[in-house]
Design a protein that fits this description.
Blueprint (H helix, E strand, L loop, with lengths): L8 H4 L10 H8 L7 E2 L11 H10 L12 H11 L6 E4 L2 H12 L5 E5 L5 H8 L3 E5 L8 H7 L4 E7 L11 H10 L5 E5 L14 H4 L6 E6 L12 E5 L1 H10 L7 H12 L1 H24 L3 E3 L5 E5 L5 H10 L2 E2 L1 E2 L8 E5 L3 H18 L1
Helix pairs in contact: 3-11, 4-11, 5-6, 5-10, 12-14, 13-14
Bound molecules: pyridoxal-5'-phosphate (PLP).
Length: 370
């Protein structure tokens, strides 16, 4: 008997998450110089971290022999002030993925189910399956969430609905009014997880007033992250905003020191670096224009995106070869076959020079594959 055979069937059946290929790995495989490679595969901020966060982290280094403040007092106070919400409604996570998992651990179990959309963020099925619950995947509508169909898919056993807005990898955005209507119609005994990882990249006119909805819907959990517009993906800080009783349950299952001390000071500093977020936002939208213009010039179809990435479609059966050709040219993008989009690739919006290198390399790759 192999001990692995004794692990629950639902654990053994988990498909491992495939992260974007690290620069160092491609450098080893292709014998390339690290500096000749650009990674546009994980929706990271091409500007790097907020400079204020960098300074705060450097100052914190000497303190790392001590455990972090497990209550996250300072970071919660900063978030509380920024969002006008009391600290007891904030749950800190080791990235927002951690918060998604906490929600699953609190509300799901074998026999229960979670509803999410086809082409939605890969972590939803992962955290669902990780606790032995079943996932109900609802067919997408024009690559986005079909909220009516999701509502219909809810069963008496459903405890969680995951909604990514904007969604990754499709970049689709739901209108605030449609989301609000969904919240009004969904049963209050289903937790609605509204994943707003890319919120800071939205123009103000496209942002939902989601935080104000928390007062009306005790079953709403909003998740945000420092990984994207704040440029801190490597230090893993995210947070959830939710009714204080739900927050209390999530805090009970969370590891006491799930957010590290360097991450917390970085997040506080980054939150205050309004100028950096503005710069990230502006760079993203000029870059998005550059990339979409380039894709159109190459006659490549893409899904209009509200995030810091865009997914584009290749001719049937060509995406794998194009991905490989881009790798050989030192450009890492993301294949999204696991999202049931085998003909698409996803590229993160980079610096102007990186976008240009991507478009030039793509043109070469297309020439090779014809
Ligand atoms: C990137 C991303 C996150 C952020 O994950 P972290 O754990 O905070 O780094 C969450 N949701 C979606 C949809 C994402 O694309």
């Amino acid at each position: 008997m192999n001990i692995c055979d004794l692990a629950p069937e639902y654990i053994r059946a988990i498909q491992p998450y495939q992260p974007g290929k690290p620069i160092s790995e491609l450098a080893r495989e292709m014998g390339l110089d690290d500096r000749a490679i650009i990674k546009l595969a994980s929706n990271e901020n091409p500007l790097g971290p907020s400079p204020l966060a960098l300074k705060a982290m450097a100052q914190m280094l000497e303190g790392v022999s001590l455990y972090p403040d497990g209550s996250g007092f300072e970071l919660k106070a900063a978030l509380s002030k920024r969002y006008g919400i009391s600290s007891d409604k904030i749950v800190l996570g080791n990235g927002s993925n951690d918060v998604l998992e906490l929600a699953a651990r609190v509300f799901l179990k074998p026999g229960a189910s979670a509803v999410y959309s086809q082409h939605a963020f890969a972590v939803y099925p992962l955290v669902t399956q990780g606790v032995g619950a079943s996932g109900i995947k609802v067919p997408a509508l024009k690559y986005g969430h079909d909220l009516d169909a999701m509502l219909d898919a809810i069963t008496p056993e459903t405890r969680v609905v995951f909604i990514a807005n904007p969604n990754n990898p499709t970049g689709t955005l739901l209108a605030a009014g449609d989301l609000l209507q969904f919240l009004q119609r969904v049963s209050p005994d289903v937790l609605v997880v509204l994943d707003e990882a890319y919120n800071e990249y939205l123009p103000d006119t496209a942002k939902a007033d989601s935080i104000t909805w928390l007062n009306r819907f005790p079953n709403l959990l909003i998740t945000r992250t420092f990984s994207k517009a704040y440029g801190l993906a490597g230090i893993r800080v995210g947070f959830g905003l939710v009714n204080e009783e739900v927050a209390g349950l999530m805090n009970r299952v969370r590891q006491p020191f799930n957010v590290n001390s360097i991450g917390m000071v970085a997040a506080v500093a980054a939150l205050g670096d309004v100028e950096f977020v503005k710069r990230s936002y502006a760079l993203n939208w000029t870059g998005m224009m550059q990339v979409t213009t380039g894709l159109r010039r190459l006659s490549i179809e893409y899904i209009p995106s509200y995030g810091n990435f865009i997914s584009f479609r290749l001719k049937r059966g060509k995406a794998g070869a194009i991905y490989q050709s881009l790798l050989r040219q030192g450009v890492i993008v993301r294949p999204i076959g696991i999202y049931e989009m085998p003909e698409h690739l996803r590229v993160t919006i980079g610096l102007e020079s990186q976008n240009q290198k991507f478009l030039q390399s793509l043109e070469i790759a297309l020439g090779e594959s014809d």
